[in-house]
Each structure stands twice: as structure tokens, then as C-alpha cells.
Amino acid sequence: MTVAQRLGRFLLAPFKPTLRVVEVQEPKEGAAEQMVLTARDQARLKGCAPALITKVDQVLTALSAVGVTMFVTEGLRSTERQQALYAQGRTAPGDRVTNCDGVVLKSNHQAHDSDGFGHAVDLAFAGADPYAEAHPWTLYGLLAEQVGLKWGGRWTSPHDRPHVELP
Ligand SMILES: [Zn+2]
């Protein structure tokens, strides 16, 4: 080592960044137990694609970090349930909430032909008025998109803010 190199080392020494040991957490066995999903959420997610459940949990975990609590209102739908929703605003009272008749045009809430799982979930905010405008719907939608879900808040007909689904 030359004198110049020694000098260089000496001069650079104080500027060396301090190395920190970052502990990388491996996914643990029984990771499902760490979910923020409540027992009711998990019951309502029964029949939904595992990938969808994981993503919903990620969204709810991120929201809980900023003090926002959402819950699952609906996951997998039967054909009958979808038909009843389709009738709403057509042959039954209420506003139209879906364009999917459940047979010709299936909803992503119905079991997919590909894997037999539901691919869509609806969520709402905990509290007295789960669908109030004041809730951070956009934050929810952006987080859902961040984990790779499609958000119904992007749609215009129907504008479906509670809805997320696998792409
Ligand atoms: Zn939905």
C-alpha cells in the first residue's frame, strides 16, 4: 500500500457509513394467525381465491397502520344472490348495483370457472356509517391497486368504491 493509498484510507475513514444489521423477517409458519382479518372477515372470505384474501389482508394491514379499520361485507356470491342483485333497479326496488346477471354475464364475486374461487370482495369502513363520503375511499383504492387489485372506484357504471378484485 502506497502512502497516498494509506492517506486516502485515513481521510475516507470518517465518511464510511455505519453499517446496520437489518433483520429480515421470513414468513413464519401459521402466518395466517398474524392476519388483521377478523373472524367475521375470514368467514365472509370463505370461497375466495387465496391470493385475493392475502391482498385484502395487506390492504387492511396498511390501513390499520394509519388507524383506519375496514371490514369485509361480501365475498363469494351464489348465482341466486347475483340474480337478486341484478334484479335490483330493474324488476325489484332499489338502485342498480351491477351489470352482471349472474348467468350470461357472471360477476367476479361468483365462483370462477378457472379455479372455483370468488375473485372479488367488497369492503366498508368500521363505524356508524360504513359508506360515508368522509371515509378515505381513495386511500383504500390506491392501497388496493398498490397490492395489485383492481378497484371498482375507477369505474363509472356502476361506480363501485367498496369493490376490489383480482386482475
Ligand atoms: Zn363487489
- End-to-end Cα distance, whole Å, is 59 Å
Beta-strand segment tally = 4
CATH architecture of the domain at 37-76 and 111-165: 2-Layer Sandwich
Q: Which structural category fits the helices and strands? A: alpha+beta
Number of helices: 5
Bound ligand species: zinc ion
State the helical fraction: 25-40%
Low-confidence parts: 14-18
* CATH uppermost class of the domain at 37-76 and 111-165: Alpha Beta
Order of helices and strands: HHHEHEHEE
Molecular shape: globular
| DSSP strand content | 5-15%
State the CATH topology of the domain at 37-76 and 111-165. Muramoyl-pentapeptide Carboxypeptidase, domain 2
Largest sheet: 4 strands, antiparallel
What is the overall pLDDT average?
Answer: 87
Q: Rg, please?
A: 24 Å
Q: What topology, given as strand order, has the largest sheet? A: 1-2-4-3
Care to describe what's here?
With 167 residues, this protein is an alpha+beta fold. The protein has a domain at 37-76 and 111-165: Muramoyl-pentapeptide Carboxypeptidase, domain 2 (2-Layer Sandwich). The protein contains 5 helices and 4 strands. The protein has helices spanning 3-12, 39-44, 50-65, 79-87, 137-146, and strands at 70-74, 120-125, 150-151, 163-165. The chain has a 4-stranded antiparallel sheet. Helix 3 (50-65) crosses helix 5 (137-146). The longest helix is centred in the middle third of the chain and has 16 residues, at 50-65. Mean pLDDT is 87; it is low at 14-18. The chain binds zinc ion. Zinc ion (ZN) binds at residues 109, 120, 122, 160, 163.
